[in-house]
Specification:
The protein is of the alpha/beta class and 285 residues long. It has one domain: NAD(P)-binding Rossmann-like Domain (Rossmann fold, 3-Layer(aba) Sandwich), CATH 3.40.50.720. Helix content is 35%, strand content 17%. The strands form four sheets. It has a six-stranded parallel sheet with strand order 2-1-3-4-5-10, sandwiched between helices. Strands 6-9 form a two-stranded parallel ribbon. The protein starts with a strand and ends in a 13-residue tail after the last helix.
Length: 285
């Protein structure tokens, strides 16, 4: 039995998490165990013990698919994970949720974990359903990490930060809706992996905003990426639409529980480092 089972262990966040956890972890991809399938709960339960921590990194992200089909797939994975946890109790479970569960409308103040949820797309609805399913079935500690946008040089341009970097690096103009004056919070995948490591070491039973608490304006982010890439960024302003609003998160609860693992804001990170590809340890199981 492995001390930590990382579901979705070959995906973007999963492989960084596996690299941070080291030899005690077992990464499982959908090829190893497809949690959408009937019978997957029993197969997963067979890999668990009361000393095991399960880290759920798997699922279809909103950038890949944000349809009813993806909703059903993500809920099916959560159902089978909940069934496995009920059949074979584990030490703790870490579920990667999303700040999308709060809805995508701006708030006048930073959003804390007690903010009423208001999911408004298939992806965010599935995340909230999964949180509740796991809360109802988990026997050990359940840590729900609500993540904002997660980025890294090896994200394939699927993150907002990665997509902006790709456009700037290729000499394309960056489109700034509403002048890019709205603020967002993005966290580096390595910081997410280190936070998961700390949660595995010292489980927390509850919900945490796994954000930096250091939002950045999109126009400033584009300029910082240009400097990190050594390329002058070009911008084209577009009229404001429904996406132009500030969206910031309160991380006081995270800072109180894991003061050494609060993600660094994207502006602070880019101000001190270049944007470059970095090798990531990968494992087969």
């Amino acid at each position: 039995m492995s001390r930590v089972v990382v579901l979705g262990g070959t995906g973007f966040i999963g492989r960084h998490t596996y690299a941070a956890l080291g030899a005690d972890a077992l990464p499982l991809s959908s090829r190893d165990l497809n949690l959408e399938e009937v019978g997957s709960a029993e197969r997963l339960a067979g890999r668990l013990s009361p000393e095991t921590t399960v880290v759920m990194c798997g699922g279809l992200t909103s950038t890949v698919d944000n349809t009813i089909r993806a909703y059903r797939a993500n809920v099916a994975m959560a159902v089978n994970l909940a069934r496995a946890a009920r059949r074979r109790p584990v030490r703790s479970l870490v579920y990667l949720s999303s700040t999308f569960v709060y809805g995508r409308r701006g708030r006048p103040v930073a959003i804390d974990e007690d903010e009423p949820t208001a999911p408004d797309c298939p992806y965010s609805h599935a995340k909230l359903v999964a949180e509740r399913l796991l809360r109802s079935n988990a026997t050990g500690a359940l840590t729900v990490l609500r993540l904002p946008g997660v980025y890294g040089p090896d994200d394939g341009g699927r993150s907002v930060v990665g997509a902006l970097a790709g456009r700037i690096a290729s000499g394309q103009a960056v489109e700034l809706v509403g002048g890019g004056r709205h603020r967002r919070d993005y966290v580096h995948v390595d910081d997410v992996a280190q936070l998961i490591l700390r949660v595995v070491e010292s489980p927390y039973d509850g919900v945490l905003n796994a954000a930096s608490g250091e939002p950045v304006r999109i126009v400033e982010l584009a300029a910082l990426l240009g400097r990190a890439l050594g390329v002058a960024s070009r911008a084209v302003e577009r009229p404001p639409d429904g996406t132009v609003y500030d969206l910031t998160f309160d991380v006081h609860r995270l800072r109180a529980r894991y003061p050494d693992a609060v993600p660094v804001g994207v502006a602070r990170r880019l101000a001190t480092s270049a944007w470059a590809e970095a090798p990531v340890a990968r494992g087969d199981c």
